[in-house]
Amino acid sequence: MRLGLNIGYAGAAIGDVLPLVEHADRVGIHSVWAAEAYGSDAVTVLAYLAARTERIALGSAILQMPARTPAATAMTAMTLDGLSGGRFLLGLGLSGPQVVEGWHGVPYGRPLGRTREYVEIVRKAIAREAPLEHQGDHYQIPYTGQDATGLGKPLKSILHPLRPSIPIYLAAVGPRNIALTAEIADGWLPIFYSPEREDVLGDALDEGLSRAGRDAGELEVAATVMVAAGEDTAACRDQLRPFFALYLGGMGARGRNFYNDLACRYGFEAAAGEIQDLYLEGRKDEAAARVPDELIDEVALAGPIPRIVDRLEAWKASRVGTLLLGTHQPEVLSALQAAL
User: Fold this and answer.
1) From CA 117, how far away is CA 188, in angstroms rounded?
2) Bridge partners (DSSP) listed for residue 33
3) pLDDT over threshold 80, residue 11
4) What span, in angstroms and rounded, lies between the C-alpha atoms of 122 and 40?
5) pLDDT in tens, 102-112
6) Which domains does the chain possess?
7) What is the mean pLDDT of the chain?
8) Of the candidates 67, 82, 91, 143, which lies 20 to 30 Å from 42 by C-alpha distance?
9) What is the pLDDT of residues 194-252, one digit of tens each?
10) Please, is 160 exposed, middle or buried when counting C-beta atoms within 10 Å of its C-beta (0-12, 13-18, 19+)?
């Protein structure tokens, strides 16, 4: 197993994060991943980090597909890959209906079909084997709608990419999206992954792999795990509780929260329901207090560094190939890298 660093929505605070990324680069951490929601974008952050690092791979976790056309994403991927000397990893995701429709102002639509077409178009554009053409339910290239000028023609990128294929990772939480990821992507970006409950997610993974005639080794699982290191395990758990409360309670509407659904599938139905109710009522501190210790210990790393290092064994025995550490502590990176 290898390690990555997930810096989240770090665009506005890149000066604070840069020393940590440079440390990760020096100690041999495999990759650093930047996120976006409806604030700082991931592309600008990764371009900056490309100029300030030498070896570490640069991943987007994730670029929002509804925010960009597939061709625009292909252009971005080729550019970042060229600027970084072939270090870019393209992580894509749909985001959720609240952000897609409330911020980007486009319909959420049918996410599975849209994702399949999107990935196909991005790969075609980067490969440059022929002028780009695609006529699907979600994307038409060249555009042929009723309001088309009729002047569009198939084009081939004028940029010759450094690599004809850039690894594509998909963020997926629900079973059908996980199966699609295993079928068409190079990697999967799960969150709240539990080594003890791999059976909850494994059936969907295996279904997708089977549909594509692939084996498990052809899909890289890069799971984000939040980390809080310190001598007091209970205090470290408390540091992480607001993060869990945000995702289980506030990332999505009632009945359309993918993270809450996952906690329920893990067997935490009662706690997940209570956390969501409290969070949506504005009682965020109470929601955080209801996050079970058992859930934190399964899907995060909390406590003294020796305890965290011991817990690493469960992840090494799992299907996870890359563990993306959500941490601001350089000593965590050094200790876990040394423990591999």
Assistant:
1) 17
2) 6, 59
3) no
4) 23
5) 999 999 999 99
6) 2-227+302-339 (3.20.20.30)
7) 96
8) 143
9) 999 999 999 999 999 999 999 999 999 999 999 999 999 999 999 999 999 999 999 88
10) exposed
For a pLDDT cut of 90, what percent of the chain falls above it? 95
DSSP state of 129: S
Neighbours of 152 (CB within 10 A): 12
Global pTM?
A: 0.96
* pLDDT beyond 90 at 256: no
Query: Tell me, what's the pLDDT at 297?
Result: 98
Of the candidates 204, 10, 174, the residue with the CA atom closest to the CA atom of residue 94: 174
- What element of type H or E holds 92? strand 88-93
3-state secondary structure of 326: strand
If 0-12 CB within 10 Å is exposed, 13-18 middle and 19+ buried, where does residue 51 land? exposed
What sign does the CA torsion over 293, 299, 302, 308 have? positive
Q: What is the CA radius of gyration of the chain?
A: 20
CA angle 76, 130, 106 (to 5 degrees): 45
Instruction: Provide the pairing of β-strand 301-303 with 322-326.
Output: unpaired
Whole-angstrom Cα distance, residue 130 to residue 212? 24
Mean of the pLDDT values across residues 280-304?
A: 98
The pLDDT of residue 12 is above 90: no
Q: Give the closest residue to 186 by CA, choosing from 55, 85, 57, 47.
A: 57
Residues 245 and 284 sit within 8 Å (Cβ to Cβ):
yes
How far are the Cα atoms of 136, 189, 275, 285 from residue 282, in angstroms, in the given order? 42, 30, 11, 9
